[in-house]
Design goal:
The complex is a heterodimer of chains A (256) and B (257). Chain A has 256 residues and is an all-alpha fold. In chain A, 84% of the residues lie in helices and 0% in strands. Chain A is built from ten helices and no strands. Chain B has 257 residues and is an alpha/beta fold. Classes of the chains: A mainly alpha (256), B alpha/beta (257). At the A-B interface, helix 7 and helix 8 of A face strand 5 and helix 2 of B.
Chain lengths: 256, 257
C-alpha cells in the first residue's frame, strides 16, 4: 500500500514536471513577457511567500475563502437539515437555491458592489451566496442517504432529538460534509479572485489585477500559484482529516 | 393468563398505501393476542404474512391503522419516552453503526439512556465478554464476521437491560452452525434474565426450539394456529405440533399483488 502511494506521488510529480518543461520550452520560443522562464516564476513565487506585506495579501484571501466557506457551510447545513425534515420547506427553498446556482459569480460581484459599501462584507456575501446552494444540496443528499435500518435501530432506543442528531445524523452526513468542503474549496478559490479583482483593495485577486496593469506575466503566475498552493495544501489537510475521521471504512485491497 | 399481559393486541389492523398510488393493501387484519410476562413467543409465518408489520407495531416504529396495541399498558408509538430502555430489539440484519467499534455499538443504547460513562463501559464490556467477543471491543463492524456482528447486536439489545426483547429473524442470514450456537445462547440469556421475548422466524425448527408458545400467522397477519410448548412435552407431542404447524403453513394462499 505504501509502495502504491509512493508510485502515485511520483506519477503526480512527473506530470507536473512535464507541465513545467513544456512551459520552459514555450519561454524559449516566445518573448518572456508572454511566457517567463520557470525559474523567474519560482523566484517571484518565493518572493511573495517570504515578503511580509505580500504574504499578508495571500493570508487575507485565505481568510476570505475560509470565512465564506464557513458561513455557507453553517447556513447550508441548517438549511439542508430543515429541508430534509419538511417537504413543504423543500418545495419553497429548493427552486430558489437552484435559481441562485444559475447566477454567475460575476453577477453577484456586481450586485454586491451596488448593494453594500464595506469591502469585506461584499466579499463575504459573494462567497457565501455562491457556495451556499452546493453546500445545501450536498449535505441534503448525505442526509437523505441515511440508512432507514440504522434510523429504526437508533429510534428503538428512543433517543432525544439531540442524541439522534449527535449519534446518527452527524456521522451519517460527515462524508457528505467532507465532499462538500473539497468541491466548494476549488469553487471558492475561483470566486474570491473574481470578487477581489473587481471589488477589493487587497488579496490575491487585487494583486492579479495589478500584475495585469503592469503586464507582468511572471507576477501574475506567482500570485496564481499562491492560490493553487493554498488550495492544494487545504485539500490535503481535508483529505487527511477525512481519512482519519472515516477510518472505519473498509478498503478493498483492489482499491489500494 | 395469570398476570397482566405485557403485550396486548386488540383487533389491530394496519393498512399501507401502495407506493405507486394503486390503492392500499392490508398487512395486518384485526389481530388479537396477548403475551404474558416472561413468556417467549415464537411467531412463524411465510414471507409477506405481516409478522414484521406486527413486530414494527410492537416496537413502536409504526402506528396501527385501527385497533389497540398496548405494550406494558402503554401505546408503543405514542408514548415514545415511556419505552426508553424498556424494549430491546435484535433485527434481521445486525444494523451496527459502521463508524462505531464493537464496544461503541454496544454502548449506544446506554449512552442514549444517559448511563454513567464508566458504568456503561463496564456493562458493555461484560456483555461483549458474555457473547464471546473479548478482544474484539475495538474492532469496527467491517472487521467482524457475520456471526460476530450479530453477537454485537445481541449484546447491544441486552446491555440496556430491557423488559421486552423483540427479535426479527435475527439468525436468518447466518450459517446453520453459527445460528444454532447463537440461538442456544440467546434462549439461555432470555431465561436467565427473565425477559419477555417475541421471536419472529420463518423456520419451524427455530420456533419450536425457542418458543414457550408458537403463533403461526397467515396473510394478512391473522393467527391461524397456536400451540403451547413445554420442556415436559414428549418427542411425539412435539412432532405432532410440528406436523400441525407445517400443515397450517402449507395452507397459506399464494401472495396477492
Amino acid at each position: 500500500m505504501k509502495n502504491a502511494r509512493t508510485i502515485r506521488g511520483l506519477q503526480a510529480a512527473a506530470s507536473m514536471l512535464a507541465l513545467a518543461a513544456a512551459w520552459q520550452i514555450l519561454s524559449w520560443v516566445f518573448p518572456h513577457f508572454l511566457f517567463p522562464p520557470v525559474q523567474d516564476v519560482i523566484v517571484r513565487t518565493i518572493d511573495v511567500l517570504t515578503t511580509g506585506s505580500l504574504l499578508a495579501d495571500v493570508l487575507l484571501t485565505a481568510a476570505r475563502i475560509f470565512g465564506g466557506l464557513l458561513g455557507a457551510f453553517v447556513f447550508g447545513a441548517i438549511l439542508a437539515l430543515v429541508i430534509g425534515r419538511s417537504q413543504t420547506i423543500e418545495n419553497f427553498v429548493s427552486p430558489v437555491l437552484t435559481f441562485f446556482q444559475g447566477i454567475p459569480a460575476l453577477s453577484w460581484v456586481v450586485f454586491a458592489i451596488i448593494w453594500f459599501h464595506g469591502t469585506e462584507f461584499r466579499v463575504l456575501f459573494i462567497m457565501v451566496i455562491t457556495t451556499l446552494p452546493a453546500f445545501t444540496f450536498q449535505i441534503l443528499d448525505a442526509f437523505r442517504s441515511m440508512s432507514k435500518d440504522l434510523f429504526e435501530m437508533t429510534m428503538s432506543f428512543r433517543p432525544s432529538r439531540w442524541k439522534l442528531f449527535c449519534y446518527l445524523i452527524v456521522p451519517t452526513i460527515l462524508p457528505g460534509i467532507f465532499t462538500a468542503w473539497k468541491v466548494n474549496l476549488g469553487n471558492a478559490a475561483r470566486v474570491v479572485v473574481v470578487a477581489e479583482l473587481v471589488g477589493a483593495t487587497g488579496g490575491v485577486g487585487y494583486e492579479l489585477m495589478r500584475q495585469q496593469q503592469l503586464f507582468d506575466m511572471a507576477g501574475a503566475m506567482a500570485w496564481t500559484l499562491q492560490l493553487v498552493l493554498f488550495v492544494l495544501v487545504v485539500q490535503q489537510a481535508i483529505n487527511m482529516l477525512e481519512a482519519w475521521t472515516l477510518r472505519y471504512r473498509a478498503v478493498s485491497e483492489r482499491a489500494m | 393468563m395469570t398476570s397482566a399481559p405485557v403485550i396486548r393486541f386488540d383487533n389491530v389492523s394496519k393498512t399501507f398505501e401502495r407506493p405507486d398510488g394503486r390503492g392500499s393493501f392490508v398487512a395486518v387484519d384485526k389481530l388479537s393476542f396477548e403475551i404474558a410476562p416472561g413468556e417467549i413467543v415464537a411467531v412463524l409465518g411465510k414471507t409477506g404474512c405481516g409478522k414484521s408489520t406486527m413486530f414494527n407495531i410492537v416496537a413502536g416504529l409504526i402506528e396501527p391503522s385501527s385497533g389497540k396495541a398496548l405494550v406494558d399498558g402503554h401505546d408503543p408509538f405514542r408514548d415514545f419516552d415511556y419505552f426508553r430502555g424498556k424494549i430491546g430489539i435484535v433485527f434481521q440484519g445486525d444494523r451496527l453503526m459502521p463508524w462505531r467499534s464493537a464496544l461503541d455499538n454496544v454502548l449506544l443504547g446506554l449512552q442514549i439512556l444517559d448511563t454513567d460513562d464508566s458504568q456503561a463501559r463496564e456493562t458493555a464490556m461484560r456483555w461483549l465478554a458474555r457473547l464471546g467477543l473479548s478482544g474484539h471491543e475495538n474492532d469496527y463492524p467491517h472487521a467482524l464476521s457475520g456471526g460476530m456482528r450479530q453477537r454485537v447486536s445481541i449484546a447491544r439489545a441486552f446491555a440496556v437491560d430491557p423488559n421486552i426483547l423483540l427479535c426479527d429473524e435475527p439468525f436468518s442470514a447466518l450459517d446453520e452452525m453459527t445460528a444454532r450456537d447463537l440461538r442456544a445462547e440467546f434462549v439461555r440469556l432470555v431465561r436467565q434474565t427473565h425477559k419477555t421475548a417475541v421471536f419472529i422466524t420463518h423456520q419451524i425448527g427455530e420456533a419450536m426450539e425457542i418458543g414457550d408458545r408458537v403463533l403461526v400467522f397467515q396473510r394478512p397477519a391473522r393467527i391461524a394456529y397456536e400451540a403451547r410448548l413445554s420442556s415436559g412435552m414428549s418427542e411425539a407431542e412435539r412432532q405432532a405440533v410440528q406436523q400441525q404447524v407445517m400443515a397450517v403453513l402449507a395452507q397459506e394462499p399464494a401472495p396477492v399483488g
